[in-house]
Amino acid sequence: MEPRDAAAGAFVSSDGEEKAAQKRSAAKCVKAETKSKMEQILGFKKEDLSSWHNLVALLNRPTDPASLGIFRCLFGLLMAIDVTQERGLSHLDYKYLDGAPVCRFPLFNSLEPLPLDWMYLVYLVMFIGALGIMLGCFYRLSCLMFISTYWYIFFLDKTAWNNHSYLYGLIGFQLTLMNGNRYWSVDGLRRPSIRNAHVPLWNYTILRTQIFIVYFLAGVKKLDADWVEGYSMSYLAHHWLFDPFKAILPVELVSLLVVHGGGLVLDLTAGYLLFFDATRPMAIFFVSYFHCMNSQLFSIGMFSYTMLATSPLFCYPNWPRRFFSRFPSFLSSVLPFTSSEIQPSTSCIYPQNHSTEQQETQNVPKPPKLRLKHKLGAIFTILYIVEQFFMPYSHFITKGYNNWTNGLYGYSWDMMVHSRSHQHVKITYKDGKTGEVGYLNPGVFTQSRRWKDHGDMLKQYATCLSHLLPRYNISDPEVYFDIWVSINERFQQRIFDPRVDIVKAEWSPFKPNLWLMPLLVDLSPWRTKFQEIEGSLDNQTEIVFIADFPGLHLENFVSEDLGNTSVHVLQGQVNVEIVEEKKNYTLQPGEQIKVPAGAYHKVFTVSEGPSCYMYVYVNTTEAALLQNFTKLQELQERIRNGTETEPLPPELQPLMAADDNERAEVNATDPVVQLFLKRQRRMKEVKKRREAGALERLERFTVKKYFTIRRGFLMTAIAMRNLLVGLPPLDQLRREVEFANMKESPTESNQDEPLKDEVGHGEL
């Protein structure tokens, strides 16, 4: 084995590995070669790229299987956990309940979910496949079990797509073609011929290049102006994880320099820094810190841990041998191999630097000729890498999936580059025969909100509604969507033309979407003005910025909770119609008008170009409620310190028992007092949870995960029983599901719920 086999994807320096390899092969080598600077840094010579034969030999160079085996084990473990978490085994019955009128969004319209019990079987096969990958047991079969079911579930629901779910599927596919069971595997115990045998270098090349692409292209995508200027993820700077930075920098600079600037630099450089010996320790430290932060910032399942597991792939392939050799010898029977003696493999091409006499006397394998599998491995490596660099920029082909952002989200590595907020969504249907017009609740018959931003999903949703609405005596329905979106803190504006019947609208994956409204990027400079305006408002006043196209209008209803609501024109010309008063008012830039609460009004854009205006309002109900809370808080403080001398009326007496009885709100007759006490109790619970020690947090986390996983497996067992012996009596089935739904305690599950029932504010 030549020392160059340690090269990281044929790009990594192999100085340390060369020394170890030279020492091991001193008795075999006639004369050690003098390494060029290029070979010392990159791990290969120019001659290795000079011909197809040399390139195939390079990519099939024998390499230590240890690092690949450890990654296989970690990846399989993480995917087994992921099946119960992000893949959704624990709540599968909610998603695929038989007979439920649900609109789904598969990649191919002909792709449909199986009956519920069979879906549990699909998940069980995927889980067993992940376990097989982890153990290296019947490795190829386990990989096929995992990726076939994984990609089926992936294609079944576009609304669940994201970059890391796509990455899991890619890695599973790669491992299927690799020799990942050559180290620390059950297959190695069953088949000694493959135990601790060399793997070709291309196994590492593909994995390392894949992770490089994830980092580097994520950085390239972050060169977008919105990210560079700090508009994509500005809210992250308020998270407690950035408190150390906020101690020396204002929040605005933390957002710009740390969140956006730091994320850009790390993604652009991490892939390069991981490749080289001198920078690898620093790179591993920073990417580990980065992924640990992400695990707390976002609900991204096993992604952070999967990326942590990929970092050692960039180290020398024999790092597990050095690591596990430090453990006590009595553990050697359960730990991976630490011996440096590696079996030869027909999957590799060995260098021709051994004499015939040495080959005969020292049992050194003869250099084989290039076989078909060697050439196929090299061809696959090159084509796969080219395809992975091409896919994120293939949107000029799949034009129908392009919206304000290009392509289906999930394979472009544009992670966290775009943040959206939805202000107004209206679904209008029209009976094709009677002309009757009605409205649907946004998201009716769906389990996702992602359809609002993607034309392909909107078309699927409209088609599904056209099939469901006839059940409610609506014939030949036409469906219109009026969706207002703000992307990266811009104006709220329409994303699709509200005048187009989406049921009959044309859509093709290869043609531009004609009913997509353009993003008003020319108005982006207004975002600086937004910050100035918002900074001048008090805490009780809120504001919404709107932009609209000529010839269109916004119909809006002002809730009675929102007093003192006014429309201020920033650009263009609008006509405001008060529906009940049947009056119209034309406004120019700088003018404003107060609109009545509890009534409809319409804002027409009458200028030649887009209009820009803002709603300024105060939630008077919430303001009054908070004012009452303040008075009750002051009264409660006086009761506690004994300065309150006046007798309390009956409706305020529960304030006296609040400290001794956390359920005092049950006895409160006044609704404001009841809400106040309930709010206090919730705040105490939240404070207690935040101030909990590490052991208590770990226990709470473990218990929560236990009941989640428990439900998934119990429901799977019920489904398997149903498939094998048929459905039991309904009462028995109900008891079994209730047992599976058992949780740790009602209080634990309720602590995370928002105070939805407080008057005037749904997410106070």
Structural description of this entry:
The structure is a single chain. With about 775 residues, the chain is an alpha+beta fold. It has five domains: about 270 residues, no CATH class; about 100 residues, no CATH class; about 90 residues, Jelly Rolls (Sandwich), CATH 2.60.120; about 60 residues, no CATH class; about 50 residues, no CATH class. It has 25 helices and 14 strands. The strands form four sheets. Strands 4-3-5-6 form a four-stranded antiparallel sheet, covered by helices on one side. It has a four-stranded antiparallel sheet with strand order 7-14-9-12. A four-stranded antiparallel sheet has the order 8-13-10-11, with no helix packed on it. The protein is globular and about 90 Å long.
